[in-house]
Amino acid sequence: MRELGLKPTSSNSQRRIKRTALELGCDTSHFTGQRRWSDLQLRDAVTRATSWAEVLRLLDLVDNSDARATVKAHSLRLRLDTSHLQPAPVDDLPDDMFTEGAQTTMLRVAASAIATAWFMLRGMPVAVPAEPQVYDLLVTMPDGIRRVQVKSTTFRTKSGSWEVGVGRRPYVMDKSAGKVPYDPDSLDYFFIIDGEGRIFLIPVQVLAGRIRIYIDSYASYCVGDASSLLR
Fold first, then answer.
1. What's the domain count of the chain?
2. Among the three residues 27, 56, 85, which one is the final residue of a domain in this structure?
3. What residues does 190 pair with on adjacent strands?
4. pLDDT for residue 146 is more than 80
5. Contact present, 200 and 170 (Cβ < 8 Å)
6. What is the spatial distance between Cα 162 and Cα 197, in angstroms, rounded to a whole number?
7. Which domain holds residue 188?
8. How much is the pLDDT for 52?
9. Does one domain contain both 48 and 151?
10. What is the per-residue pLDDT across 178-189, written as a single tens digit (0 to 9) for each?
C-alpha cells in the first residue's frame, strides 16, 4: 500500500487491495506480515521435517508453546499435511512408569477432588465458590443445597488413631493465632478423608465447638473407602 501511495492504516483500502490482488491472481504467499517466515518457507519446513520441533528449527524459531501454536495454526490454514509430525502412538506403557506410590503428603491437595467425585458419582452436582468462603463445596443434595467443608489427615497418633483438625484459623494478620471452631451456621457438613482412604460425612452439629477430633470415634459416619487411591 505504501508503494501505491496509500495509507497502510486504512482498513477500507486494505480490503480493496486484497480483493483486487485476488481477482488478478497475484501470489502473496511470500508476505510475512509480523512473521519472520513466509508461507512458502513454512510449507518447505513442514515437508522436510519429521517433528514440530524440527519445523521450528528450520524456521529459526525458539521452540515454545506460543511459537508452536502459531506455526500449527498457519499450517492448518494452508491445509498442509502434518500427519508425519505427530508423535507415534504408544502401544504399551513403559515398565518403569507409575512405579512411585501415592504421596500421602498430597492428600490435602487431592481431598477436594475426591470429595467432588464422591458426590457427583451419587448424582449430587457440585459447585466451587468463585470467592474464598468458609465452605469448600456447594453440593446439591436431595434435601437442598448444602455447604461442605473438606478436611483430610495424614497424622496418626502413637495409639494408632487418625487425628483430624476441624477448626479454622481466625481471620487475623497473625498467622500464629490458634485455631477456633467453625460457626455452626456457616456449614452443613464436614467431608473427611483419613490416611487410610476412609471417607466420612459428618453433620456440622456433631462436631460443633470442636477444633480437633479422632476420626475413629465417628465410625458410624463412615460413608466410603478410597484406599485404592493411596496404594
1. 2
2. 85
3. 149, 202
4. yes
5. no
6. 11
7. 104-230
8. 92
9. no
10. 889 999 999 999
Report the sign of the C-alpha dihedral through residues 87, 88, 90, 94, in that order: negative
Higher pLDDT among residues 202 and 34, named by residue: 202
Instruction: Report DSSP state, residue 84.
Output: G
Residue where a domain terminates, one of 33, 52, 85:
85
Q: What confidence tens digit (pLDDT) does each residue in 49-62 have?
A: 999 999 999 999 98
Name residue 51's amino acid. Answer: S
187: left (phi over 0), alpha (psi -120 to 50) or beta: beta
Specify whether 124 is located in the same domain as 191. yes
Residues 80 and 111 in one domain: no
- Look at phi and psi of residue 144 and say left if phi exceeds 0, alpha if psi is from -120 to 50, else beta: left
Could you identify the residue written with the cell 456447594? 138
pLDDT value at position 172?
60
| Secondary structure (3-state) at 9 | coil
Residue 94 lies in a domain: no
Rounded distance, CA 206 to CA 55, Å?
A: 63
